[in-house]
Amino acid sequence: MSREALRISSMHRLLGGPLGWLLTTGPLNNLKMAMLPREFRMARARAVAVVHPDPLGLLDALGADAAARRRLEAPAAKALADLASRRAALAPVQAQWDDAVWGSTPPDPATLIALDERRRALSEAAVKPGLLFRFLWKEASIAPTAFDVPDPALALTRAAEWVKTPALLYGAPKAPAAVERSAAIPGPAGPEYLIRFPSPSPFTDHDTVTARVYEPASGGKDAPTFVYGSGLGMVYDLIRYWPEEDYMARRLAARGVRTVLPESPWHGRREVPGRYSGEPYLARAPVSIYELFSAQAQETACIVAWARAQGARRIGVGGVSLGGLVTQQIVGHCGTWPEEMRPDMAFIGAGSGHVDQVVVMGDLSERLGISAAVRNAGWTDGLLAQLRPLLDPPDTPAVAPEAILTYLGRRDRSTPYALARQLLDRWQVPERNRIVHDADHMALYARLIRSDEAASRIADMLAT
């Protein structure tokens, strides 16, 4: 029997129930953080396998030592055959989906719903193949990230003009983007569709930005709009459960707010061949950090301008973790942008000040090997501090302090609370706009998923 709309993910319902409370506790946060290097190692194996589809080629490209190559050749061959089968199953469905949503004559809504669900299930099997590469779970000779940290002297020379005038890096796009819109798929809170446009940033080689849009069922071109960025490593609607979709976008759409969830540079559909989603952001730190900040800030400006053109009466921008750090830059630099590109309010989830210190001291940075890789490449605290004008926003926000809402964890060691508070104090963000929980990084994210606290405040601020 055909259905009339997409469904809220069953995983989201589970996390919102009594068992999901466990994810907000310290022990579960610590367990999740401890598992991340293993998860990233398997993600790297999947990405490299796409460009090295033979067992020894895969293991060589991953950097496995000689003993590991001999021991792992057979399980690697099996995993590669399984991955190839999954990708082959996805290909025709992906092509059919592309034609359905981007073609000139979309099929009926029931067909679009079935296609979207089928495409996401098959894509998940190919993009996040679970334990397919579990034989690499503890393989110490294979790093979770293939680091290529830039030489400090060369990087600082290249960045000298930007450091002197950060507006050169964070300036607005030269022109509004030519945005293409897909057919709409009925969703649980209203129509859902995709938009895409060329990135204005040279750091992404001007690739294609894709975002999923969630419209209120009530419609209305003047509906307020919220643009929300996900965290590191997300693959968005390439899998069945994308938390931001259910805990933020559909919640806001149900409250009359059009919500846009963009894909970050080097993530999702924008993966670099041979690199997993988000890996370039880690691999070339600290340079890649401000490159992504700049690119995503400019891309968000394009989406804000698109929303204005749709008639949106108020527009907010926001994000969590990586998305929150990007939002800080937008808040700091959008004052020089054309009026149609400037947001009216901002939400910063798990943000932080002094990002140069986060690179070498943050818990996530240390666990994923970023801190060691940056140090080994010759970056000292003093050299990193020279990049602070590019990694941190200005001390004066371009969005009114009372229009800034934050969501922070007091025990967060990945984007440290103390550094975030210092930034908010400089910005004079009112205490009533600082939602603070006694939580670590992952536990804070779990609270976002389980509670509508943040979405409700955002909706209220956009309604005024």
Structural commentary:
The chain has two domains: 10-136, no CATH class; 152-463, 3-Layer(aba) Sandwich (Rossmann fold), CATH 3.40.50.1820. The chain is α/β, with parallel strands linked by helices and 464 residues long. It is built from 19 helices and ten strands. It is globular and about 65 Å long. The model has no long low-confidence stretch (mean pLDDT 95). Strands 1, 2, 3, 4, 5, 6, 7, 8, 9 and 10 form a ten-stranded mixed sheet that branches. Helices cover 49% and strands 11% of the residues. The two termini are 42 Å apart. The relative contact order is 0.13.
What is the compact description of this entry?
The chain is of the alpha/beta class and 464 residues long.
Q: What series of H and E elements makes up the topology?
A: HHHHHHHEEEEEHEHHEHEHHHHHEHEHH
Number of helices: 19
Instruction: Examine the secondary-structure arrangement and name the CATH architecture of the largest domain.
Output: 3-Layer(aba) Sandwich
CATH class label of the largest domain: Alpha Beta
* Global geometry: globular
Secondary structure blueprint with pairings:
Blueprint: H1 10-15, H2 26-51, H3 55-62, H4 66-102, H5 109-127, H6 152-164, H7 167-170, E1 180-181, E2 185-186, E3 191-198, E4 208-214, E5 225-229, H8 243-254, E6 258-262, H9 279-283, H10 287-310, E7 315-320, H11 322-333, E8 345-349, H12 355-361, H13 363-367, H14 370-376, H15 381-385, H16 388-391, E9 404-409, H17 417-427, E10 434-437, H18 441-450, H19 453-463
Parallel strand pairs: 5-6, 5-7, 7-8, 8-9, 9-10
Antiparallel strand pairs: 1-3, 2-3, 3-4, 4-6
Helix pairs in contact: 3-4, 4-5, 8-19, 10-11
